[in-house]
């Protein structure tokens, strides 16, 4: 990933990290732990990878040290985003693609990001079943993401988890998101290649258009092609692609009809993804997308830090008090905002 090198030409190199120089003793210990964990993860230890992803989810105080240790090793993985309505077959497609990539000798990481299903819900159990083929494969790491306590929420936890898997040496990383809202669309847009998956007879194509995921699709999958109505769905999709404004790009998203449960046309899907990867390289789009991803990541961390500074975190009553006065007509909103900004703490913990 481009975080290390993403500053534009002509801009000054970043100052030496004074934070590391003045690390208090406890932080020193945390930093050493983090470096050790990252080393173990890079050595192929799946438990170390799992631990790192948990620390990301928790918004651990070690996050800063982890990200520092991870940064120089990341930037090699190919990131695939799979999005679509619940039940269209995202997990099944992920599992089928994992099989294809494993046959090619690639190590694969997968993150399922589903804000609509609770962490311990049935969806995850179902996913376990769908991922069973890979359960004992040390070179496959699959994880459902939750964001307990992460200040930046999914918006910054996901790219950070991705960065961890990237540094740990997974060649392909797949992110599965439910395409239901803006947040998920944003997560999907973190990928190098985004697959929008629909299934016949679910009105998914229409939903996809509504949620704005049509614009971010690099490739469409009509899964459950064994079901009635698959041809109609393909036609609907073709019409929608024809109408969409793609003037900014010379990549025309292909449609692949799959039966993911039987692995049908999944090799073809992988081939189309290879073609997209080649196009990304040729067009310079990969570089642009990775910079975009790094920018969103930095932005999410900075916004989390700002929120902490102006008292917008749980347990901080400053915003609440001011809001009460604004609601009562006691203070105008601009003056209230000025007060918040003026009272910003000089230092804040930017841990997530
Ligand atoms: N008939 C049929 N069922 C499928 C196909 N792919 C997945 N399914 C089933 O659809 C259900 C939902 O699949 P899942 O991968 O969990 O969907 P997700 O919610 O999008 O991740 C499961 O019962 C799968 O077995 C397919 O190609 N054909
Ligand atoms: Mg799923």
Molecular structure report:
There is one protein chain. The chain has 352 residues and is of the alpha/beta class. The chain has 14 helices and 7 strands. The protein has helices at 18-21, 25-42, 46-57, 63-70, 90-103, 122-130, 153-167, 182-188, 204-211, 230-243, 266-283, 285-309, 318-327, 333-342, and strands at 78-84, 108-113, 140-145, 172-178, 193-198, 219-222, 255-257. It has a 7-stranded parallel β-sheet with strand order 3-2-4-1-5-6-7, with helices on both faces. Residues 84, 86-92, 126, 130, 223-224, 226-227, 259-261 line the site of guanosine-5'-diphosphate.
Mean pLDDT: 80
How many β-strand stretches? 7
Q: Return residue spans where pLDDT drops below 50 for at least 5 consecutive residues.
A: 1-24, 117-125
Distance between the termini: 18 Å
Instruction: Tell me the helix content.
Output: 40-55%
Order of helices and strands: HHHHEHEHEHEHEHEHEHHHH
* General shape: globular
Share in β-strands: 5-15%
Q: How would a textbook summarize the main sheet?
A: 7 strands, parallel
